[in-house]
Amino acid sequence: xxxxxxxxxxxxxxxxxxxxxLVMGILNATPDSFxxxxxxxxxxxxxxxxxxxxxxxxxxxxxxxxxxxxGAQFVPVEEELSRVxxxxxxxxxxxxxxxxxxxxxxxxxxxILAGVDMVNDIRGFSSVDAINAVSQSDVGLCAMHxxxxxxxxxxxxxxxxxxxxxxxxxxxxxxxxxxxxxDRQRVCLDPGFxxxxxxxxxxxxxxxxxxxxxSLGLPLLVGVSRKSMIGEITGxxxxxxxxxxxxxxxxxxxxxxxxxxxxxxxxxxxxxxxxMTLSN
Length: 280
Prior knowledge:
Elements: E1 4-7, E2 10-13, E3 22-28, H1 43-56, E4 60-64, H2 77-91, E5 97-101, H3 105-114, E6 118-121, H4 128-135, E7 140-144, H5 162-179, E8 187-190, H6 199-216, E9 221-222, H7 228-234, H8 242-254, E10 259-262, H9 265-279
Parallel strand pairs: 3-4, 3-10, 4-5, 5-6, 6-7, 7-8, 9-10
Antiparallel strand pairs: 1-2
Helix pairs in contact: 1-2, 2-3, 3-4, 5-6
Pathway: Cofactor biosynthesis; tetrahydrofolate biosynthesis; 7,8-dihydrofolate from 2-amino-4-hydroxy-6-hydroxymethyl-7,8-dihydropteridine diphosphate and 4-aminobenzoate: step 1/2
Protein name: Dihydropteroate synthase
InterPro entries: DHP_synth-like (IPR045031), DHP_synth_dom (IPR006390), Dihydropteroate_synth-like_sf (IPR011005), Pterin-binding_dom (IPR000489)
């Protein structure tokens, strides 16, 4: 495991006495988010939400201009840029790391120029253009595994062995990063809970997190906040999945996750502080 995760203007300890799990807050600049119904779609609304997350103790704000919920429709590049670039400019000096949640190389390039510290790609930088867009920068990278695409990923996902296939995917991607000269200290990995996976797949992945980290030697990001897997376990609708989301996040930390991508920042920060104090 690397000692640090280099993320643009920020360097985060990944082990040792200075380590604390990172909380990444979700900021959806979209009209069709599954969790917040587009309430932060306006620039002022998004800025206010970001300011609240900063007060709540967020480490990274993940800005997205295209929903990745199951069944989500494609957003043209120009539309996505119009949603996220003004927000990045407004927040780039806010004091916490900014991430852009996109798989489009054109958006990656513009977001890096605007001042983001990290690129979070749900397609795992699967295109040469995406790798080229980030290779000469110093931003942190999160490569996520997804089977198929948001439009159809939850239509009967199937694997021979979900964990071995995800592990192979990450190994191939890291080899491509190496060829592009991307320092692995800039990279974290997300197995993609709920992205082309059933509840059974998600459970198997959670149990396998220590092996991902042992085999790959890189920090793991886990995003389970409010997802359908929490609904399946608890029987609760999206707006009542906080307790389940926090429980799953703490299980992920116990399994070795280093970053948590969440909707409920204040509650997660408190849970992480308590977990750190009582488990050390």
